[in-house]
Design a protein that fits this description.
Blueprint (H helix, E strand, L loop, with lengths): L3 H24 L7 H7 L6 H11 L16 E5 L4 E6 L1 H14 L1 E7 L12 E11 L6 E12 L2 E10 L1
Parallel strand pairs: 1-6
Antiparallel strand pairs: 1-2, 3-4, 4-5, 5-6
């Protein structure tokens, strides 16, 4: 039977080893652990309007889209896989639709497809494709590609179109 002194040393070594393992786990998390969280914090673009779009989808926050929904124009929308019928919607309607979509889906990842480097950095109109991977309730992950068109206005950008692409 080991002496009380050797048991204390053994416990101390085990305690030090456990602390070391915990420190390594915190420094080098598993790629599976928190992958969605890491993607949510990833910067989207240097373009401020694209950063707003990415933040809204990654954080499931329709309120973050308010700066892009300021105009009096109608937005063209079509996304059968999200249940959005083809039509023109007011900015307030789009806000409510996206708020409901974000409430019923959990974002796994949102990223933009690479943009054409030949295009000007600050055009009057900008169309990008965003790939949104999400879960709805306990269902498997789903992925939808959305073409998002923005138009410049004095003082910022407006979302003008949200269209599902194959």
């Amino acid at each position: 039977m080991p002496s009380p002194e050797s048991r204390r040393r053994s416990d101390l070594r085990a305690n030090v080893a456990l602390k070391g393992l915990l420190a390594l786990a915190l420094l080098f998390p598993s790629p599976q652990m928190g992958a969605g969280q890491a993607d949510r914090r990833k910067p989207a673009s240097r373009h401020p309007a694209l950063s707003v779009l990415a933040k809204a989808f990654r954080e499931e926050d329709a309120e973050a889209l308010r700066p892009l929904l300021k105009g009096e124009h109608k937005l063209y929308v079509v996304s059968p896989s999200l249940g959005l019928r083809k039509g023109y919607y007011s900015p307030d309607q789009i806000f409510l639709i996206l708020r409901d979509l974000f409430r019923t889906r959990t974002t796994v990842e949102f990223r933009f497809a690479p943009r054409d480097p030949c295009r000007p950095e600050e055009p009057q109109e900008l169309t990008v494709v965003g790939h949104w991977t999400f879960r709805q309730a306990a269902a498997a992950e789903r992925r939808t590609a959305l073409a998002l068109t923005l138009a410049r206005r004095p003082g910022g950008w407006d979302l003008r179109e949200l269209r599902e692409v194959p």
